[in-house]
Amino acid sequence: MTDFNELDDALRLLLRPENRAVDEKFVLNVLSRIRRQRHRQSITISCLCLLMLTLLSQQALKLASAYAPLSVQWQNLSFSLSPGLVINTFIALAVGTLAVLIQRLFQYTD
Amino acid sequence: MPASHDDDIELAVLTVAGDLNAYAELVRRHQPAVLALLVQLTHHRPLADDIAQDSFVRGFTKLHQYTGAGSFRSWICGVAYREWLMHRRRNQHDHKLSAFNEDFHSPVIADTTMPMINQIDLQNALDCLQPEERELLILSFVAECSHADIASMTKLPLGTVKSQIRRAKENLKNLLNGPHND
């Protein structure tokens, strides 16, 4: 005849997790997943920031036509930088960086 | 090494402060319990391993919610149980999950010194219980959750949890005292 105390003891013995050894590979896998998750989060935040800056720059580009070109004198050379060119260069760089970040994001997703 | 409650709280505080090594130690301490719980719930060792890893990652992001009121083992097992429920909901159509994995018993049954009740008979009897009853017993014995914790995890009334656990034990007892186990 099985009584409840005996059954409880038997269940504790059967189900007790102390029977299992710690798997170090498991711990490393968990840490690696956490690191990947952190990378994903920081990349996503960077992407959003860049996207916001790019959108703001686009608005700035529309206003830039109202301003005269910026002239830069260096020794006997003079440069004329239009604000539109500066902003366009920034947008191109931002889009390029965004593309690289998105590619990294996909790397960390799998 | 027995995982003491105060040490767990200290490790949790360090983890929330950004120390990943502290969390590694928490994982080391509670991996056997989480894995044991999930192996019993899924009957599938590789799947249990996968959900256990997801549970610890989820636990890391929610660690600030751990107040230290209960044991860390119960808390992380609660996270694992919810992960398993989500997995089951996503894969309800997959009948393979309910199929038994032949290998899942081997790591659990390491102790053959149990005097009165044979562990294999007990595991078989446990597998014959209704899934709801089995889940409650497993949460109670592996996760060491209190009845109140189980009630909040399963969203069942406390009285129902207590009566279902009682009924599960009675059913287990009847199965063990059946004609094949005389």
Q: Residue ranges of chain A: pLDDT <50 for 5 or more in a row?
A: none
Q: Helices and strands of chain B: which structural class?
A: mainly alpha
Strand portion of chain B:
under 5%
Total number of strands of chain B: 0
Radius of gyration of chain B, in Å, reads 17 Å
Dominant shape of chain A: rod-shaped
Backbone structural class of chain A: mainly alpha
Secondary-structure element pattern of chain B, one letter each: HHHHHHHH
Q: What oligomerization state is this entry in?
A: heterodimer
Q: What string, H for helix and E for strand, traces the elements of chain A in order?
A: HHEEH
The helix tally of chain A amounts to: 3
Binned, the helix content of chain B reads 55-70%
Poorly predicted runs of 5 or more residues of chain B: 95-114
Helical region count of chain B? 8
Mean residue pLDDT of chain B: 82
Given the C-alpha coordinates, what overall shape of chain B results?
globular
How far apart are the first and last residues' alpha carbons of chain B, in Å? 38 Å
Q: Bin the strand percentage of chain A.
A: 5-15%
Tell me what the structure shows.
- The complex is a heterodimer of chains A (110) and B (182).
- Chain A has helices spanning 4-15, 24-64, 83-109, and strands at 70-74, 77-81.
- Chain A is mostly helical and 110 residues long.
- In chain A, strands 1-2 form a two-stranded antiparallel ribbon.
- Mean pLDDT of chain B is 82; it is low at 95-114.
- Chain B contains 8 helices and no strands.
- The interface between A and B is large, with 30 and 41 residues.
